[in-house]
Specification:
By secondary structure, the protein is an all-alpha fold. The protein has helices at residues 12-71, 75-96.
């Protein structure tokens, strides 16, 4: 014969305890998630700072490159002047015979 044990009636207190345990587990999981988000926020802050540094370096490099143009002549101007000097030298050599 199959005798089943009588089912225990769930009381309101039992139900309240079960719900409380469920909320406790959820709260513990959210605490872990909060910690992970704090770590991610920290990493994003570091990345943001590094990106700002890279932007500053890029701006400084761009300024330096643009300033080079003011200090040196362009390749075209150099080539043009070189051709003119060569022509003058050849004329001078022809006149002096050297």
């Amino acid at each position: 014969m199959n005798k089943k044990a009588p089912k225990k009636q769930t009381t309101l207190d039992d139900l309240a305890i079960m719900v409380a345990h469920g909320f406790e587990r959820i709260e513990n999981r959210f605490t872990g998630v909060d910690e992970k988000f704090d770590q991610i926020d920290s990493r994003f802050d570091k990345l943001e700072k590094r990106l700002e540094d890279v932007e500053e370096i890029t701006k400084a490099t761009r300024r330096d490159v643009l300033n080079l143009g003011e200090r040196f002549i362009s390749r075209y101007e150099f080539d043009t002047l070189s051709i003119r000097v060569n022509k003058l030298e050849s004329k001078t050599k022809n006149k002096t015979g050297k």
